[in-house]
Design a protein that fits this description.
This protein has no helices and ten strands. By secondary structure, it is mainly β.
Length: 114
Amino acid sequence: QVQLVQSGGGSVQAGESFGLSCVASGSDFRFLTMSWYRQAPGKQRDLVASITGDHSTNYADSVKARFTISRDNARNTVYLQMDDLKPEDTGVYYCHWEENDYTWGQGSQVTVSS
């Protein structure tokens, strides 16, 4: 059973950067497709970025060229580096194992103020 533990969230000003990490346990991390989702207040949870075991990446149009997803298989960790943050990036960010609908991190609140 895969378990995901995320780093804490934070509050930043628009234009600043912030990073999230998510550590996975309980499976062979190398083969897991990992993703980050964001849920803004009153909205559904949407995909932000994903990365396959062979490091292929995919991004939502709204974050392309600003966010970077990466992974360190030796540390069983996936990262989300967020640069040039905007107020509309505010939300709870969740780490997710794509091959299992029920495996999510605990969520990290990121608040971007203008």
